[in-house]
Amino acid sequence: MTENFQFTLDKTDAGARLGEISMPRGAIRTPAFMPVGTVGTVKAMYLDQVRETGADIILGNTYHLMLRPTAERVARLGGLHKLIRWEHPILTDSGGFQVMSLSGLRKLDEQGVTFKSHVDGSLHHMSPERSIEIQGLLGSDIQMQLDECVALPAEPKEIERAMEMSLRWAERCRVAFGEQPGKAMFGIVQGGDIPALRIRSAEALSQLDLKGYAVGGLAVGEPQDVMLRMLETTLPVLPVEKPRYLMGVGTPDDILKSVARGIDMFDCVMPTRSGRHGLAFTRRGKVNIRNARHAEDMRPLDEQSNCPASRDYSRAYLHHLVRANEALGGMLLSWHNLAYYQELMQGIRKAIAEGRFADFMAETMEEWARGDLDPV
Fold this sequence. Notes:
This protein is an alpha/beta fold. It folds into 2 domains: 4-29 and 60-266, TIM Barrel (Alpha-Beta Barrel), CATH 3.20.20.105; 273-367, no CATH class. The protein has helices spanning 47-52, 62-67, 71-76, 80-84, 96-102, 128-138, 156-177, 195-206, 224-234, 252-259, 270-276, 308-311, 315-323, 327-353, 357-370; strands at residues 6-13, 16-23, 26-30, 32-37, 58-60, 90-92, 106-109, 112-116, 123-126, 142-144, 184-189, 212-215, 244-246, 265-268, 279-282, 285-288. The protein has an 8-stranded parallel beta barrel with strand order 4-5-6-10-11-12-13-14, surrounded by 5 helices. Strands 1-2-3 form a 3-stranded antiparallel β-sheet. The model has no long low-confidence stretch (mean pLDDT 96).
């Protein structure tokens, strides 16, 4: 542990990067996957379990927490870490994505965004300064700038307007964040699917000398090849010595291909959301446990896994739980999926350390392509 935020880049293997973020609340091994704890809970999981899967950090959502239980109440109760019993680092997003995507009523201008709560219809105003204030009240270790995320496809003029607005908001967030020893604020590169705008955004944010940089506005409807092309355009412009975070991504395939291009941090609701709907990610690819073929299969999802949910429960039982809409089915599959994601990250880090990431990537994708075990 350290009193300051520090990122150490230990090794590179072609584009892939092995490193570590050191913070007062602990170290974050990179490449890292951050489970999403939207409202102070990683859905259907105990946080002790989340930690045991190998997670060094989780994500909290500013928009949802400011509405319930409110940032001020969380602060009065001692901060988010204390409230949810998670002593390790927490990254909070700015709330911008949810404001843009969930709110049925919003008014955007230079000062920020006024929006209607999806919970009770109450009106709220989120400025760059208020976003940073809320994240500070929550006690977040890594705070994100407020930005405007445009869903793709979109008109070039609209993408450029949002990108320029996000840059101005980044400067205001940096001033509002000030100096907070041991904590960090990350900027967010925008620019949609237009390479020149991505480069302009990355160059301007780099001038702010922030502690880290995220790539936002991807995985919002565009094909994977567009996302990867934007990473190839953007990442060479960002400082080598700062961590790079790809927001809201994604599938195991997305993660592998993004690590290959130089991404250090990921978050996504996919492992838990998929688990609650009966879909498991495994070393043999995706498994829909609802399918009838699993009804009398007493084999586990993955007998090689260290996770009890993966190793100790039969597919037949998981199939029964999911088909009966029992909560335990979603809990066990969420546990399995998060464990698989962390095992994947561990394998990625080991491969980079050994200088064999390309081989690891090819072997992993070949195993996915083999498909699930033959039916019994």
